[in-house]
Sequence to fold (662 residues):
Amino acid sequence: MELLDIFITLGFWSALVRMATPLIFGTLGELICERAGVLNLGIEGIMTMGAMVAWYWVYQGGDLWTAVLVAAAAGALFGLLHAIFSVYLGLSQHVTGIGITLLAASLSYFAFRMLLPNVTTPPKIDPFKPLPIPGLSDIPYVGEVLFTQSPLTYLAFVLVPVVAYGLYRTPLGLAVRMVGENPLAVEAQGIDVHRLRTAAVMLGSAFMAVGGAFLTISVFDAFYIGMINGRGWICIALVIFASWRPGKALAGALLFAAFEALQIRVQQASSAFIPYQFFLMMPYVLSILAMIVMSRRAAYPKALLVPFRKGER
Amino acid sequence: MRLEPRERVPLWLNIVAPVGAIALAFALCALLILWAGAPILPAYAALLKGAFGSTFAATETMTRAAPLIFTGLAAAVAFRAKLWNIGGEGQLYAGALAATYFGTGLVTLPPLLMVPFLFLVGAIAGGLLLLLPVILKLKLRVDEVVTTLLLNFIIILFANYLLFGPWKDPLAMGWPQAAPIIDEGVLSPLIPRMRLHSGLIWAVAFAIFAWGFIRFSKWGFQIRAVGHNPEAAAFAGIPIGATVLRTALLSGGLAGMAGVGELAGLKGYLTLDISPGFGYTGIAVAMLAGLHPLGVIASAIFIAAIYNGADAMSRAMSISNYLADVLTATALLLVLASVLFVRFRPRLR
Fold:
């Protein structure tokens, strides 16, 4: 297959939109946390947890949409845990986040092993089916790529403007952005800094968990150990790439998904002369490159990583 | 609730707080054992027995502690300077790759020199791998957490490529493994018929070295100063960039040596399962030790005991050995919180 041929196949574009979905959820989630001044390195583990609980819910005969809610709730719970340590106790956000990732991922694996002992091949479930949107899905080309996707993919794309509107056009969003820049000013407004940050971290973590759930109950139909495979870390790079803006986060996620979708197809075409491991490296290499390119313009929220203690200047 | 700094920290609190936190972690994880349908005390007894119950068990625990001391030191040294090196896993592989490159026939030295030589090339490889993200951090302010994390994936895929491609040992019957380290480079066993090797002695020696370095040397003082307060350190004329670079070389070097020890002491040849996440577990080791290099020895043995004990426990009863990871993570978070309550007194408004 020639390289250019890949770009004119609908399968490529459709896969691109599909692969962007978990990245959109994860990046939006991390963005909300960081905008409130809290780095959430728990993302990798929270995505694993979301993937596990959503899959298990459906495996036990639960409904797919309820599974999404269950995943979101589990994510919010770990977000709360992260907030207790990093917001209320003011402990290092780096170390707490790594701890949350270790805890959430290992609890997921432990539960998976205990719930399904003696299973060698992961049992399958009936995942979300592509939902063609009436009318729009009949548009040639565009319809198949954009409007014949999993309902969770539509949700991800809808959430981008919703989050942007929430952050930039509502009083609550203003407060969240302010608490990431100048928590003292927020306190002066009579808003509880700790509660606001905790709420933001919980919401962001719920997003991450749904991103993980998308992998098990929409793309694949099973859960397996190590399935998140660094996607969470890539989301953290994407937040920096996006300069903490939801619209750019969408663009970044799509760009990354494009490379991922391209990678699989080029790999099939050229495995004879380029070892496949180099293609698998691409997303990670690109994440680093993206951070280098954006480094000059990276405007970190000023209070990111800075714990807030009442009565301290 | 408000936290106010304690004027004096009583000695007993310094000991009771972390021990209490670890006890609480065991109590919380007992709930998981209950959930698994196993009795709690016999389960923990099996864990203890699996960790220290026989000469074999104890030497296996010490064997597992050796790489954890190295990766724990790597994290402790870096975190002291507020350099968030989460790339211990990748640096471990870099060390193992370098030792494989030089140690499988390219260089032959007498055993007395060959082993230090392998540790040296491994340390250089690990240090160089951390240099890239640190230079990006210093020059372009690129966040080192993400870059070090992502480099782990890149290096392991690179090792994967080498082991399935150019470095694949034709005598290994199709297994993805490299040629064995030459006999001169193999670390000698410490106890006959056991797997415990002299890598442990190297690890302990470097823990003592790291402690002395941080505590007594000028460069060590600069590392601590930069970690405490970079602005004040810069104002006092401490070269921030040079200090961070030195920290990076030391930290990455220590993690690289973990890879050399595993390669030359345990496996003898490079495989893709040379590390079950030693690099990541090293972060927990360092935090449990309060970033103290000598404490790292104790906490590495403790965590190695949890992992080996949990393996034995999962063989004896139907409890997944992922319990070890849950225990480590819970202990990490709780000890972190306990240290805070040592430094601050919680006051209800």
